[in-house]
# Entry
Amino acid sequence: MNFNSLYEKPVLFALAAVVVISIGTLVTTFIPLFLPSTQPASPLFKPYTAVETEGRDIYIREGCNNCHTQTVRPLRTEVARYGDYSRAEESAWDRPFLWGSRRTGPDLARVGGKYPDAWHYRHTPDPQSMFPTSNMPAYTWLANAKLDTSLTARKVEVLGFGYDGAEVARQLAAFRQTVTSPAYPSALVRSQVTPAPLQGEITELDAVVAYLQKLGRDLKAAQASVARPASAEAAESKNPYAGKPAAEEEGEKIFEQNCRSCHGDHGTGGFGPKLAATKHKYGGTDADLFASVAGGRPGGMPAFLPPLGKDRIWKAVAYIRHLERESR
Amino acid sequence: MANESGKMYTVDNIVQQEMRMTNGERSDSIVRGFALSSVFWLVVGLVVGLWLAAEMIYPALNLAPWLAFGRLRVVHTNGLVYGFTIAGIFAGGYYLLEKLTRTRLAFPGLAKAQLWLFNAAIALAALSLFDGMSTSREYAELEWPLDIVVVVIWVMFAVNVMGTLVKRREKQMYVSLWFLVACVVTVAVVYILNNLAIPVSLTKSYSAYAGVNDANVQWWFGHNAVASVFTFPILAMFYYFLPKSTGLPIYSHRLSIIAFWSLVFGYLWTGAHHLMLTPVPEWIQTVALAFSLFLIAPSWASVINGFYTMNGNWDKMKSNYLVKFFILGITFYGLQTIQGPTQAIRALSGHLHYTEYIPGHVHMGTMGWVTMVVSASMYFMMERISGREIHSVKLANVHFWLILVGQLLFTVSLWIAGIVQGAMWKATNPDGSLMYTFLDSVAAMYPYWAARFAGGLLYFAGILVFAYNLYMTSRSTPGTKWSDASAAGSRAA
# Structure
């Protein structure tokens, strides 16, 4: 066959082009569809609940993935900033995946459990009230909209989450009970951002917060169940910067950047407890304060050892001592 | 220039062949319709883009749900990929198809219907995305009913392209037609396979793929949408309109053959370079990296072909207002195809991915390469369609300099921003802790975002000049007739 005749036969040419583009497609995309490495499943990673599913769809509707990634790369500084790197198993239930391609805002793969619900109730509708230099849009309309659950049962069925319409109804009722109860730990902030007629309903914001709290939760739970008590933190018991004014000043800057949004200006309190006080929830020795900051505490205090390091934690503790003195 | 069967490809015989076609045999009104539609969606897409650039600096501009960044960004990308670029491809594709086959479109009525359906679909697409009906998968955000409309439009295009090729009167297919056919088949394959989904309602569906596979399929699509929309058809226009507007034959036909097949073969392997250091299997990432580096060769084959075509005639950069669009366009294509593969290298991806560097990279391709070539091609086509000279060569030059300077200010500031941002994310103290909070890295971006907005404004001003100039050229004035001589005179700026 004269090879040049290919350029005289358009149909044959088009078929040749299809064959040529199919080879790379076959190797890098089609065959991997059936490999175990692209579809690992693990009982440790659970499908989304009914409310989380709806929250995820609102996340998609608002295009949150255009500014937030959901994949932590296995890089040292990335793990220090966000938490452990992402595993394939974690995305097993994700249709579509939401790894994103741009971090105008931070990665969210490990945001679940990092802050209390109240943090998200305040931050999502008004990010600048907590972080003045943030450029995140204020999602004010989410709390003003009742969650549409007319398709939830159908969605869960299509996604193959393994529970039926009756279970969806039960979950929705239970969730509504939880978030509308006065005993809900974030009840105060929720009531501040939710309009009165919707206080007793599930809002879109409720669903988004539930979804965000799911991100990375299963991995953290699996790791916590096998983790040893942190011994490195326990070894730190005495603040090398105690009473040094220069360190306290540096500690103030560290506090402004990392602690203020939850613990308030000068530690006067917010979502997090008041720190300008002589008594602390988890104990007031140097060792206690260090352990709280470095390792985090249940209910929304993140672990700051990886991003801040010991040195800056001790400076922040020195500043907290300074606040204590001023509060006397 | 001679291929092995002794057939000559010279611009002279292409021109002679075309002289034998009368204006009445061509589907000029359809080409004009797509060209003007393309420019309309270009202006719309850029207004949205400017609003987004301003929102980066002033978040208070997120005034309403439909104006919030997350939704608006999708309107911007889809409007410019599917509205501007695809319409430009339809215009340029049909024009060069008729010329290079010496045949009228096989189904002009179908093409007319395609024009109307296309504009209706883009308008509907924009409305649906404003409303948040999105799949979230980049450049494939449209929900399933609109996906079906897109496929129907594409089939209409494919039927006309293949039908016209089958009944053509010119024996050999010129390189531009190869790229056009590659565009037709690649878009069809990647668009359909990537958008497979299970509907939940008329406005909501879930991907047929899950997790890692969804990511891998999506970026195989994402990258090849770039290949088959921003590369193949733009090269088709470049290979046709550069020789046509200079009267110079393409430097090497053999180089075109090598470039074509290796480009079309290599592109489909590289999708996972968008997924470096993610849970996608490492071998897929590595294969994508290897083929990304390989692609430099066929990409630069076209760059070399373009540059050597001008050999000995570089004075045309000054004397012919169109040439500088094509030559700067292919230059940015060359830079783009060096920058892209380097971003795939793991260490550099680790630093640059997820930063502003990536939007900087993309915008050099779209604002530099694609728009330069498409707008010059449109000037060329519109002169011949309306049978008159370009409205103003002076304005075309203003258009050129504004989009060039605007694009450079835009892209260079984002590259620097990305390098700074990546460095801030990676910076550590001696004890291994992080030097900057994430918010520090946001605050550091504001000056660069301001520069980007300024660049975008300049670029937009240039596009407005282009739109005006093209529209004025498209209005046929009774009594003026286009002829080779007057056109040659008009091109001398």
